[in-house]
Amino acid sequence: MIASIAFYLFATLTIAPALAVIFARNPVHSVLWLIVAFFNSAGLMLLLGAEFIAMLVVIVYVGAVAVLFLFVVMMLDIDFASLRSGFTRNLPFGIIIALVLLAEIIIAVSAWQAGPALSGHNVAATTQPNIVALGQLLYSRYLFPFEIAGLILLVAMVGAIVLTHRRRHDTRPQKVWKQVARRPDEAVKVLDPGVGEGMKL
Amino acid sequence: MGRFAPLLPELILSIGGTILMLVAAFTGRRGSGLTSWLSVALLIAATFALMGAPSHAGPVFDGLIAADLFASFGKAIMFPAAAIAIIAAHGWFEHDHEHSSEYAVLIVFSAVGMSVMVSATSLVSLYVGLELQSLAAYVLASYRRSDERSAEAGLKYFVLGALASGILLYGISLLYGFTGTMNFTGLASAFGRGAPSLGLLFGLVFLLAGLAFKASVVPFHMWTPDVYEGAPTPVTAFFASAPKVAAVLLATRVCIEALGPATEAWRQIVIFAALASIFLGAVGAFGQTNIKRLLAYSSINNVGFALIGLAAAGPQGASSVLFYMAVYIVMTLGAFLCVLWMRRPDGEPVETIASLSGLSQTRPAFAAAIAIFMFSLAGIPPLFGFWPKLLVFNAAVASGYVALAVAGIVGTVVGAYYYLKIVKVMYMDDPVEPFERAREPIQGFLILLAAVIVSPLGYLLIGPLGALTDRAAGALF
């Protein structure tokens, strides 16, 4: 019973913020809604008895969202002062969201203790922590795609370096040794202009 | 060790590629020649390693990938094509001082991705292979950072490619959700249980849409002309050859092995995509003035013909797809090697069709080579390009799709126009400034070799190549 309530709660709260991500006018709000969606999908994973993946979703995706946030802030022209101005006005709304998340966590924990009721067949998670099961599969049956995924990451790294790290001729980097080695007679020119003659440089 | 024997080509390429990365890191810019030639050697070694276990070991890693003759055939034409893309780049990047060793290494990694694609028998390996190949390709497309068009091509390819990957993944998740399996055999048995449900159909459509993007099939072709034009020419030669073969072969395996029982469901999609590609590829090429854009439309057009063979399904159809792609890769590489030689006397590359004007008077042999490739791509009878077209039409007729074959033939005639236009420009127009006389004996030899294969002498290959494609296609059934 508690498991089905929790499922519908998490499912609704995954889909609704996902829609809000698309429809929010402000990109910063989109990113925040995305975090709500990720947290709730982590809750769904928890209901399936996949606690490791649930934690992974939170850690990896919220980490990724932080990067996304940086991109949004850097690439788009957003006036943060006006966003911050309504803090006290929006405080009740923020507290409500926090309470909803807190309630969700409580429900998730109690539903998780009730066992993976929704997965149909009972997973081996009860006998074996699923991080162990996952590790065993990754290094045996799924070794091949796992290694290829490693190659993909290598290519991504090589690609990023190839595309950004190259010698450019139009930049003017600071040359410290040149600055230190500079002497007064190279930098200063002492002239004695005659009256009404002007100066030639 | 015996367990890894069927993976020998992939192992050679991935371990070798990683070591070459170190070589590149320690030799820097000076080592670009060394890395290029070592990469070519790796690809050739991997091709030879295909003999033996990699072509008949069957399913490996619990059916995640298959080491069969179908996959080996694909690899045997893709690895040399990748090697040619490295050789072709060698002279080309030297001249604008942007060559670095990573180019060759990225192509090697891309080759690993392609070989995983053609041997994938599970949606997991399908996806990782595709992604490895694409990711390397995105980097290669924007390899000339100083060139704005190249950067634009890379960005466009990346954004659209990521979208296509998303669509593909969505299809995969639907298929997995409704069948509970990722294996092609498991999917086939799920599809075999009566009429597919709506969820399965959606999964199938999304999966095919993602693959169609990678093979640049209409209606997912929009990126092709822009990316082919913007990417450096050796990279374009690579895109038009090996990855395209990988995508078409992957689509063939997915359609026949995984979706075989649902043939009626995907056949209409493939027929539409085939005809749309043929006609849009032919019509889109009409107004083009840039030869790389024109060849991009030509590649869309040619993949359309290969899909006719796929729509025919059955062993004969699959065999004709393999034959088509084998000949296509030779014609395309030949044509692109010629484009690489289109350089002004000061060494600056040109890409306009107008610059070919009167080439038959200034450089008769070069003009003859281009003419051979154009006639062959158009599928005009005495040349070898005609035979694979005949095979796919034959396969379509044999499975009762006469109208499809007739539409394909009409498309051939429409498409012949722009190939012939190039020949006309070369042979009948007044000569303009002649090209630089290229001093690259290896490229010259490769052009000659490709020209001989697509010339009527190529008909000698029909026997052995036909037998090989028949056996390779037989591995799917």
Automatic annotation (TrEMBL), chain A:
Pfam families membership: Oxidored_q3 (PF00499)
UniProtKB keywords: Cell membrane, Membrane, NAD, Oxidoreductase, Quinone, Transmembrane, Transmembrane helix
InterPro entries listed in its UniProt record: NADH_UbQ/plastoQ_OxRdtase_su6, Nuo/plastoQ_OxRdtase_6_NuoJ
Membrane topology annotation: Multi-pass membrane protein
Ranges that cross the membrane: 6-24, 31-50, 56-78, 90-112, 142-163
MF-aspect GO terms: oxidoreductase activity
Subcellular localization(s) per the UniProt record: Cell membrane
Catalytic activity field: a quinone + NADH + 5 H(+)(in) = a quinol + NAD(+) + 4 H(+)(out)
Transmembrane helix found in the keyword field: yes
Entry keyword Cell membrane: yes
EC number of the protein: 7.1.1.-
Domain of life of the source: Bacteria
Family to which the UniProt record says this protein belongs: Belongs to the complex I subunit 6 family.
Role of this protein: NDH-1 shuttles electrons from NADH, via FMN and iron-sulfur (Fe-S) centers, to quinones in the respiratory chain. Couples the redox reaction to proton translocation (for every two electrons transferred, four hydrogen ions are translocated across the cytoplasmic membrane), and thus conserves the redox energy in a proton gradient.
PANTHER family: NADH-UBIQUINONE OXIDOREDUCTASE CHAIN 6
Descriptive protein name: NADH-quinone oxidoreductase subunit J
Organism of provenance: Sphingomonas hankyongi
Automatic annotation (TrEMBL), chain B:
TM region(s), chain numbering: 6-27, 34-53, 73-93, 105-130, 157-178, 190-213, 269-287, 294-315, 321-343, 364-384, 390-420, 441-462
Topological relation to the membrane, as annotated: Multi-pass membrane protein
Swiss-Prot/TrEMBL keywords: Cell membrane, Membrane, NAD, Oxidoreductase, Quinone, Translocase, Transmembrane, Transmembrane helix, Transport, Ubiquinone
Subcellular location: Cell membrane; Endomembrane system; Membrane
Domain of life: Bacteria
Statement: the UniProt record of this protein carries the keyword Transmembrane: yes
UniProt xrefs under Pfam families: Proton_antipo_M
Enzyme Commission no: 7.1.1.-
Main location: membrane
Top EC category: translocase
Domain NADH:quinone oxidoreductase/Mrp antiporter transmembrane per the UniProt entry, residue ranges: 120-414
Family of this protein: Belongs to the complex I subunit 2 family.
Function, in words: NDH-1 shuttles electrons from NADH, via FMN and iron-sulfur (Fe-S) centers, to quinones in the respiratory chain. The immediate electron acceptor for the enzyme in this species is believed to be ubiquinone. Couples the redox reaction to proton translocation (for every two electrons transferred, four hydrogen ions are translocated across the cytoplasmic membrane), and thus conserves the redox energy in a proton gradient.
Subunit: NDH-1 is composed of 14 different subunits. Subunits NuoA, H, J, K, L, M, N constitute the membrane sector of the complex.
Name of protein: NADH-quinone oxidoreductase subunit N
The species this protein was found in: Sphingomonas hankyongi
